[in-house]
Amino acid sequence: MEQGICAFTGHRPGHFAFGYEQGHPDCVRLKHAIGQAGSILIQQGVTTFISGMAQGVDLWAAGYVLELKRDFSGLQLICVKPTENHGKNFRGEDRYLFDSVLARADEMYCTGSHYTRRCYQIRNRYMVDHAQRLIAVVDDYNSGTGQTIGYARKCGLEL
Q1: DSSP state, 24?
Q2: Integer Cα distance of 92 and 98 in angstroms
Q3: CA gap 21, 114 in Å, rounded
Q4: pLDDT digits over 5-38, tens only?
Q5: 3-state secondary structure string, 74-123?
Q6: CA gap 104, 99 in Å, rounded
Q7: Residue (of 46, 27, 57) closest to 132 by Cα position
Q8: pLDDT at position 1, please?
């Protein structure tokens, strides 16, 4: 496994008080904090980031990585979708960002062909299994994000 790989995990917009209002000051601050964490990791040798392509933290982080690629040659973004049709129902800004990220990603994987009860868990474990670090935005550990953090801890990832 390559060194210097970091995955992102976090809640969808509906989990946050600002919801889908991406211009809200709290959302802007959160996106900036995610970007700052990514920038610090790049300075520490991270060269590859993995996004699970969910609305919210996953897509915001992926978009920021694509911005950083302009300044850091060799930086890579890997997108991991839980199903082949993941993202087809996204609308508006989320759909635009999803399509833009996929078009500019260095690699894209699907961990399943169609929706199953466990497809997101399988995707999350795939990301953890292919990373050494995890950036997580969480305040509810009884969630998919919380489960991903628990699995990352069990696997010894730096959080």
Answers
A1: S
A2: 10
A3: 30
A4: 999 999 888 888 898 888 899 999 999 999 999 9
A5: CCEEEEEECCCCCCCCCCHHHHHHHHHHHHHCCEEEECCCCCCCCHHHHH
A6: 9
A7: 46
A8: 44
Q: How far apart are CA 125 and CA 114, in angstroms?
A: 17
Contact 134, 5 (CB under 8 A): no
Q: Give 41's Cβ-side CA count (13 Å radius).
A: 27
CA angle centred on 153, ends 158 and 29, rounded to 5°: 60
- DSSP type of residue 71: T
Q: How far is CA 127 from the centre of its chain?
A: 9
pLDDT at 139 over 90: no
**103-120: pLDDT as tens digits:** 999 999 999 999 999 999
How many whole angstroms separate alpha carbon 2 and alpha carbon 17? 37
Residue 140 has pLDDT above 80, yes or no: no
Range 83-98 average pLDDT: 94
Q: Do 66 and 106 contact (CB within 8 A), yes or no?
A: no
With beta carbons less than 8 A apart as the criterion, state whether 95 and 52 touch: no
- The per-residue b/e assignment along 121-138, b for 16 or more CB within 10 angstroms, e otherwise, is bebbbbbbebbbbbbbbb
Region for residue 95 given its phi and psi (left: phi exceeds 0; alpha: psi -120 to 50; beta: otherwise) = alpha
